[in-house]
Amino acid sequence: MNTRGKPRRAGATGSGGQRAAASRKDPEADRNAETIAQAPERIAKLMARAGVASRREAERMIVEGRVRLNGKPLESPAINVTMSDRIEIDGEPMRGIERTRLWLYHKPAGLVTTHKDPESRPTVFDNLPIDQPHVVSVGRLDINTEGLLLLTNDGGLARELELPSTGWLRRYRVRAHGKIDQAGLDRLQDGIAVDGVLYGAIDATLDRTQGSNVWLTMGFREGKNREIKNVLGALGLEVNRLIRISYGPFQLAALKEGAVQEVRSRTLREQLGPRLIEKAGANFEAPLFNDPSAQEKKKPAAKKAAKEEKPPTPGRKLSREEKRDRDLGRLDTSKPEKAPAKKRPVNRNRSSNVWMAPGARPLSPKKGAQKTAPKGARGKGGARPAGKPGGGRSGNADRRR
What we know:
Number of helices: 10
Distance between the termini: 134 Å
CATH class of the domain at 100-166 and 249-280: Alpha Beta
Structural class: alpha+beta
Strand content: 15-25%
Radius of gyration: 44 Å
CATH superfamily of the domain at 100-166 and 249-280: Pseudouridine synthase I, catalytic domain, N-terminal subdomain
């Protein structure tokens, strides 16, 4: 049956039509992507994406007069800008948008999750490694709360991960003073209202009882301020230790207290997913301004140059190359080298400490070295040495007699 006359379905194209459509679509997609990248947005949002500060802090910096736009002081954050505008912060130009990055930080107790504390208490960002770029926290942990804290250089991603609509589960290990059973904890699955504040469903498990304290594992998706302490306080428990062990797909695991670990870009993209990446506006194609791998490549050359210029420290164990250079430096080429002394030949025909049977002779005696022993002389063990035939009596003849 001939199918040439059949009408083609809407949107159906052949292989050539698909290639032509793809070729027509690619430039359009590139233009759309470029338009989105150059689309104006609020200056606080742009500063947050560049890793300067969170949106709230960026707005506060603008109100304080610390931000200049195209050479003029900026008085209000209600303005849209692009990366083509010249933005200065505290007199220094703002750098471009860096690739979206995320770190896991094991926060110790006693640190405040803020960049500047009015009471001059130690902060999380004061205790980060020195080479760490400017980052913002995903949410906050109380001063006495320990455990996992997410840090990122993308303020847009931090804002998106903080929202309850993301649906990420936050899990805590809790030690509380008081008594409760599992049936009392199961009531939290339907939510609870405390002092007019409605808290959503909480999954709580009684792990063990230790004296007058109980250990619990709690998980929820909202993350309101002091949620665990307020909810357990309504049940007659007083929280005395709180440790966050996970935030969404990211786990505290065996990360040491005070340590920071970066999540690989590939892993981060997989865990976020395309929907969340699009909502947060994460950028995984931008360059890295603080690339630790590039800094590590420069270190060996710098160390080698320092070793060549700086003499070795006394008392330090020298390397093989340093020992070779030291020995070559001690060579004196002004005087001719002396010929090596000749070694004395080793006499392998030993005549001492060799036991011989009575009447036996050496296998390879030297000429003129063997002489007839005087009469009455006996060898080792009382045997007489062998002489010429007919000269003296041999030991065998003595035995025959």
